[in-house]
């Protein structure tokens, strides 16, 4: 056992309302730590209303009093620190504040809810010592790793997010770039500029340090049994923003490999598909509002039109929404800012033609599926999704003269 105060490992644990877990977690980590190195556990608390920070502070005081009374006791190989932060400002800033307050040569980041088992910490420490210039990642998706306790929806969401990160941001060398359990050299995390918000600091580190070797260690991720999950719509939105920011970072970084060009093309293609679908939804809303206003007494009361048959109203609504879709897609989706009369008229005619083809495809798919006893609701969703995607490709290639995969 090391009797020096030189810290080899700093374990950073951000907390918010983890009073049910934190003291037991500290105890389990201490039990599993090897005796050969001095380790500090740095709890970074975001002013938890449930008193998490106060619990840790009391624990530290108790341990200090105990050590003072036990004269001649063996020197401990671990100490606990608490960092109090005012306000809940996010996981990534909490991790970075914890790093600033730590002193270990190697930094280990983990969650406080027991989803990251303390038993895997010694394995990560050993790998870090064997590969001191590498990022060591606790992985759910390499052989031997798994997830326990997640519903199918959560598993699908996680797998999709990992796939998007690996393929879209070219971090294919790592199976689990979304892991919250990892170890890395202090200088690596100190010298990186973190720009994104949310919960996935490892992803940004991997994107901005593509030459750093990585090593994944399998572990079993167990969904929290105590406390409340931090996963919500805000987390998902921040992840989407982070993906876009990191993608833009890659565009500006200069050196781009052939694989990265392909990946960037993929992300750009998906980005435009997303915009196209968003415009389509806005068109449906416009179509409905116009048709409703014209076909109801509302039209007469505000003297827009009178005696409009509901089918005529629907046709007018469709025409207006189709026109709005064209201009929104031209300006936003395909970023074509040329609005001279000749070229715009040709594009508009082409847009109408391609939309008609898409409608025919949709009706054909819907008819085929319903006639083969697929429920109408499912058939309709599949038909609209497939037809809209094909329609997007046709409009991209023939209306706005862009390469399909770009």
Q: Runs with pLDDT <50, length 5+?
A: none
Our count of domains comes out at 2
The largest sheet is: 7 strands, mixed
Number of helices: 13
Q: How many E-type strands? A: 9
CATH class of the largest domain: Alpha Beta
- Rounded to the nearest angstrom, the distance between the terminal CA atoms is 58 Å
Structural class: alpha/beta
Helix content: 40-55%
The global form is elongated
The share of residues in extended strands comes to 5-15%
**What is the radius of gyration computed over CA atoms, rounded to a whole number of angstroms?**
28 Å
Average pLDDT rating? 83
Query: CATH superfamily of the largest domain, called what?
Result: Spore Coat Polysaccharide Biosynthesis Protein SpsA, Chain A
Q: Could you say what the CATH architecture of the largest domain is?
A: Alpha-Beta Complex
Strand order of the largest sheet: 3-2-1-4-7-5-8
Q: Could you say what the CATH topology of the largest domain is called?
A: Spore Coat Polysaccharide Biosynthesis Protein SpsA, Chain A
Short description:
The protein is α/β, with parallel strands linked by helices and 406 residues long.
Structure write-up:
The chain has two domains: 9-252, Spore Coat Polysaccharide Biosynthesis Protein SpsA, Chain A (Alpha-Beta Complex); 258-399, no CATH class. The chain is α/β, with parallel strands linked by helices. The chain contains 13 helices and nine strands.
């Amino acid at each position: 056992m090391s009797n020096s105060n030189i810290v080899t490992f700093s374990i950073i644990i951000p907390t918010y309302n983890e009073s049910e877990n934190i003291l037991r977690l500290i105890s389990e980590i201490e039990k599993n730590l090897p005796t050969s190195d001095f380790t500090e556990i740095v709890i970074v608390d975001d002013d938890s209303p449930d008193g998490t920070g106060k619990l840790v502070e009391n624990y530290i005081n108790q341990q200090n009093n105990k050590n003072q009374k036990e004269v001649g006791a063996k020197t401990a190989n671990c100490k606990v620190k608490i960092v109090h932060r005012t306000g809940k400002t996010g996981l990534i800033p909490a991790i970075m504040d914890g790093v600033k307050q730590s002193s270990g040569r190697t930094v280990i980041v983990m969650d406080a809810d027991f989803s990251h088992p303390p038993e895997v910490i010694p394995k990560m420490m050993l790998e870090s010592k064997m590969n001191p210039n590498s990022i060591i990642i606790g992985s759910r998706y390499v052989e031997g790793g798994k997830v326990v306790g997640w519903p199918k929806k959560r598993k699908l969401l996680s797998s999709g997010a990992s796939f998007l990160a690996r393929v879209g941001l070219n971090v294919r060398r790592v199976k689990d770039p979304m892991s919250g359990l990892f170890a890395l050299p202090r200088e690596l995390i100190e010298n990186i500029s973190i720009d994104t918000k949310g919960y996935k600091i490892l992803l940004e580190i991997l994107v901005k340090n593509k030459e750093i070797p990585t090593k994944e260690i399998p572990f079993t991720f167990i969904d929290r049994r105590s406390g409340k999950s931090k996963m919500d719509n805000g987390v998902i939105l921040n992840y989407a923003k982070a993906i876009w920011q990191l993608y833009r970072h890659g565009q500006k970084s200069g050196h781009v490999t052939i694989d990265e060009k392909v990946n960037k093309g993929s992300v750009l293609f998906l980005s435009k598909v997303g915009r196209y679908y968003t415009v389509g939804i806005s068109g449906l809303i416009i179509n409905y509002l116009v048709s409703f206003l014209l076909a109801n007494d509302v039209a007469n009361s505000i003297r827009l039109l009178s005696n409009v048959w509901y089918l005529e109203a629907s046709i007018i609504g469709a025409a207006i929404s189709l026109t709005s879709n064209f201009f929104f897609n031209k300006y936003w989706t395909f970023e074509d800012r040329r609005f001279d009369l000749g070229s715009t008229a040709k594009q508009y005619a082409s847009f109408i033609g391609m939309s008609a083809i898409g409608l025919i495809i949709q009706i054909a798919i819907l008819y085929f599926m319903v006639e083969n006893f697929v429920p109408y609701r499912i058939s309709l969703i599949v038909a609209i999704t497939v037809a809209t995607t094909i329609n997007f490709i046709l409009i991209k290639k023939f209306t706005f003269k862009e390469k399909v995969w770009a």
